[in-house]
Amino acid sequence: MNRVIETMLDRYKPQNNEERENAIKEIMQEIALAGLSRGGFFDKAAFYGGTCLRIFHGLNRFSEDLDFALLEKDPSFQLEAYFPALEKEFQSYGIDISIESKNKDENKAVQSAFLKGNTLMLMMSFFPKSEDARRIVSNQKIKIKFELDTDNPRDGITEFRYQMLPAPYEVLIFDEATLFAGKIHAILCRNYKNHVKGRDYYDYLFYIGKRSEINLRYLENKLKNTGGIIDDDEILTLDKVKELLKAKFESVDYEEAKTDVSNFISNKESLIFWKKELFVSTLSELSASEFNGYHH
Predict the structure, then answer these.
(1) pTM (2 d.p.)
(2) What is the pLDDT of residues 108-131, one digit of tens each?
């Protein structure tokens, strides 16, 4: 096995194949970020979402996808242009993967792609001494989804962050206040096949625990992009955010939310107190960042 991969695996002590697969996915996510960085991707886009929280802010849950947003609208932008850089990065560590675009929906401002590898082959490469790993069905695939928002609103604040493994690289990410604003938008607006995406609520509590501020202007612009939540000429206030969240928290099926997130965390006991009163009590903790400018 590649020495760098061995070093990255030292962070994990997987006890079963599900945990081994998640470890592989997390390492592959970080290799993908390194490849995108070396390919110049972050000149055009910023990283956000649960995986960004895990890598750069210490979120203690597994996150499946890699989420990005263009800094400026660019109708000619093609995610496929960065596939060669990704393939080159994985090849440098002896990892065999394929990348394919997901069919575009002309009505959605999202470009998607999947990075895929054979589960059995990856298990044998990452965990050559594991007998359990050898029992994987040979046609199974490990998949990592990429999503790029091509219509990201203005007022998102970005910052460069650095990682040392698999090799030093830099990633442009949205700052904490902008990330929190994006998560609140997801709670208020996400329609996830009519199910409650408990991961959003788990991440929300993570931000509350960090005493994160909210980038109100960015949240305002995202809500206006979505439509139906606030008026186009309305200036979003912190009180309005609390009002919107309170209504959402009072209507959530928390049992469904717990079911959704439980597969992504190891400490399931942390979900015991999930109920309306817990989430409503957090509203007094919310604060807004002082930023009022207009730039990415």
Answers:
(1) 0.93
(2) 788 999 999 999 999 999 999 888
Under the phi-then-psi rule, with left for phi > 0, alpha for psi from -120 to 50, and beta for the rest, what region is 94?
left
Domain endpoint, select from 174, 209, 235: 174
Which helix (H) or strand (E) segment is 225 a member of?
helix 216-226
pLDDT at 292 over 60: no
Angle value at C-alpha 172, between 170 and 177, nearest 5 degrees: 130
CA distance 124 to 116: 16
6 plus 68 within the same structural domain:
yes
**What per-residue string of b and e applies to 195-214 under the rule 16 or more CB within 10 Å gives b?**
ebbbbbbbbbebbbeeebbb
Cα–Cα distance for residue pair 224/235, rounded to 1 Å: 10
Could you list the residue range(s) of the whole structural domain that residue 193 is in? 176-296
State the Cα–Cα distance between residues 48 and 68, nearest whole angstrom. 6
- Can you tell me whether residue 263 is helix, strand or coil? coil
92: closest CA among 14, 133, 35, 18? 35
pLDDT in tens, 208-233: 999 999 999 999 999 999 888 999 99
Of the candidate ranges 14-28, 97-111, 251-265, the one whose mean pLDDT is the lowest: 97-111
| Domain boundary pick from 153, 174, 195 | 174
CATH number for the domain spanning 10: value is 3.10.450.620
Number of folded domains that form the chain: 2
168 and 186, same domain (yes or no)? no
